[in-house]
From TrEMBL:
It is found in: Nucleus. Pfam families: RNase_P-MRP_p29. Keywords: Nucleus, tRNA processing. This is Ribonuclease P protein subunit.
Length: 234
């Protein structure tokens, strides 16, 4: 039985590399990746001399693991987040002007998602809008089971599961439940002429969101598939 030597392995590698690369490139790869390839060795501790030593080492490792687990910070619960007011906008931050850049970013984001369908609309555009994130969108309440909510207009600062939190032009935060409410959203669209140039005037794409069919978190909507179906409320 003939055992291949290290030199034989290198000649086989050289033959394979010469088939795939130019001679100079093959020689470079063989030298750097095969012949001069560093071999990293992990230092290991010597095995314990007896069973008592082995038990001592096992207990020491278990103690270190328990200590590391105890020092690891625990995640903040929903009750603690609510008490600390992590989801609340401070009084000094309740200004409409602070959220206007966010609204401009959202307009660019929604135009990029819709693409050419921003001019045509249709079911494909509706499916994209249903899975979009509405943080920063400018919405207006056009219908509601509570008449006093009709006409509320502002920028969405929180897209919750059951409600939109809006900041109005008067620097007031309004919480509008989605249930029984229809929201209107307008997206400015540049007018493109036949020559492919943009005109100074803009048209607007207007669509309405039925809050009853929109009671999902933005993160859940991104992976959810919406299907067209009959609704009694429409």
């Amino acid at each position: 039985m003939i055992v291949p030597t290290k030199k034989d392995h290198q000649s086989i590698a050289a033959d394979l590399l010469n088939r795939a690369f130019e001679p100079e490139e093959a020689t470079k790869i063989l030298t750097e990746k095969v012949i001069q390839r560093p071999l990293f060795l992990c230092p290991t501790s010597p095995p314990p001399a007896d069973a008592r030593r082995a038990r001592h080492l096992a207990a020491k490792r278990a103690k270190e693991q328990r200590r590391a687990k105890a020092l690891k910070p625990k995640p903040v619960s929903a009750t603690q987040r609510k008490k600390q007011g992590l989801y609340q906008i401070p009084k000094e931050g309740q200004k409409y002007a602070l959220f206007e850049p966010l609204h401009n970013l959202w307009l660019g984001y929604i135009r990029e998602i819709l693409g050419s369908e921003v001019y045509t609309g249709g079911e494909a555009a509706a499916a994209k809008l249903a899975s979009a994130d509405f943080h920063g969108a400018g919405v207006e309440v056009v219908r509601s089971g509570c008449v006093s909510r009709v006409g509320i207009k502002g920028i969405v600062v929180k897209d919750g599961k059951f409600a939109f939190e809006l900041i109005t032009v008067k620097n007031k935060v309004k919480v509008v439940p989605k249930e029984g409410t229809i929201f209107r959203v307008e997206v400015p669209v540049p007018v493109i002429t036949k020559t492919g140039e943009e005109e100074k005037k803009e048209s607007r794409m207007v669509f309405e969101l039925h809050g009853d069919q929109f009671q999902f978190r933005s993160a859940d909507r991104a992976t959810r598939k919406f299907r067209a179906h009959f609704s009694k409320t429409l």
